[in-house]
Amino acid sequence: MISEEILQSLGIPQNVYDFCHAREVKLRPQFERIEAIAEYNQAKVLAAFQKNRVAENHFETTTGYGYNDLGRDTLEAVFADVFRTEDALVRPQLICGTHALSTALFGILRPGDNLLYGSGQPYDTLQGVIGLREELGALTEFGITYSQAELGADGHLDPQTIVAAIRPETRIVALQRSKGYLTRPTLAVSEIGEVFRAVKAVRPDIVCMTDNCYGEFTEIIEPTEVGADLCVGSLIKNLGGGLAPIGGYIVGRRDLIERCAVRLTAPGLGKEQGPTLGVNRSFYQGLFEAPAVVEAAVKTAVFAAQVFQDLGYEVTPGPDEARHDIVQCITLRDPKLLELFCAGIQQASPVDSFVTPIPWDMPGYGGSQVIMAAGNFISGATIELSADAPMREPYTAFLQGALTWEHGKIGIMKAVSAMQSVRKLAEDVPVQGSDM
Ligand SMILES: *Cc1c(COP(=O)(O)O)cnc(C)c1O
Predict the structure, then answer these.
(1) Which of 173, 186, 366, 430 shows the greatest Cβ crowding within 10 Å of its Cβ?
(2) Quick one: CA dihedral 75, 80, 86, 89, positive or negative?
């Protein structure tokens, strides 16, 4: 129980606290499942550290060319082991998830090749990389074609449609695990595996790739264990554990990682160059803590789903559903409520709690304005409690992250408080009258 005095100082009315706190009890079985996954992944990470004999000297750093950076090379071996694959590129020079994905696509694809997305419309920034939205330097400028297999009516992958969309020149089949700014279901790793098996059965030469952003450690297996030749993600999301100050990763088959490395640095240089500039310790510690941080984030997502569902809002996924990423969609159907929700998350932040998020034209997200709440230690890190939303119908908030479950819980209570402060929930929300 939080004292009345502290609740007052946080701006959380007692009735909001009581209502939300009561929801937690319902979630015990779901929380136990989440804890079991975290335990498994913690053991997996620890075993990979020990197998690679991680030692204090690996936290030392290099500058300049970064030759013989033992910490960097060992960390890449640890990542490869965690993903049960051959090799990895884990670098501060990969500045975000989009950059890591772009590096992988440009590393593998050559003029005349075709890229096939099997999970419908890709994430907003990838549309720029591919050239679906006109951007300087996009894949289309290099004579690389794009095709897309739509998801089935149930929002899940359709292996038959994907296989039918393969062309002779198709070089990569890509699947995006998380939903991006769509409300489709997130893909289970088993579902990804089924498609890659079907693709390999007809065209074993095709590179199967997964955009793994937000999915890492939400299950006990990763896509590289079910046929992905490459898996790509950001270190200011799940695998940085909130400690990595920058970075992206690409893991997978050795020959493909080599191609990505020469694209990131230069032909002839590959993995040999790349100074770590002091980030090794935070990369190691972040990966080590990532299973517990992802556990906190998933608990927060499930808790938000329960609270907002009980308040009468549409939530995806539902509180009882199995989780395959850390993202929670809450559909508010009203721009003002969406702004208040984000304001509440911002006010619950440890940093910049006094600022008010406003919608803006974020680079890479062509189309509608985006509102973002993030009071972060690491700028833009969405493994920290954060919410963002394109300002368009049906005004869905995308909530993710929380470095600790306790903070995630407070953040959700604060979001409810912010919404209640302007609009009496009793008038809008049927269940509120009896419950709050
Ligand atoms: C976050 C994300 C990315 C990459 O975004 P960055 O902000 O560049 O790190 C790509 N795909 C998906 C599905 C994502 O969620």
Answers:
(1) 173
(2) negative
